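Tutorial, part two.
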Amino acid sequence: TYIEFASAFEVRTVVDWMLVRDEASAAAFAERLHAAPRNFWGRTAIGSGVDHALQAIAEAPFEAQRRVIDVCGDGTNNNGPDVAGVRDKAVEAGVTINGLAIINDRPVSWTFAHVQPPGGLPNYYRENVTGGPGSFVLEVHDFRSFGAAMTRKLINEVALRGTPPTRF
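Running the prediction step on this input gives:
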């Protein structure tokens, strides 16, 4: 499933649960995702997104050996519930949260602290967002490399379960 979030009240399931087991089902998922419009802009309520994902997992029509939430974003949690508290709730429930931190190397002045927090966004994700067995953060520096980062993430989660590279 794919969930989109911005502010605490702007969280939506974009693509509902689908079983992806081969090239055709992966293409069908990608098609649905690509066809869906982006609905929200603005704030970054990571905690609300993770909370929505936890509810989706609880209602999933599939049994899974592992339960993983991937959070992808370009800034810190600046709206909604405390992300570390929601992360802790997820980890206690046996869910792993991984992160793809998108680095904005040219932020506008009023967003600087949001997209480049002290210690860097990947470190913020490590300290506040990700958790659980085998959790990791990938650092993505531009849209051209996003596809490679997503591929690396999937390989790590599905096949290798080791430590992925941290930069793309």
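The chain has a mean pLDDT of 83. In part three we will examine how such features are distributed along the chain.
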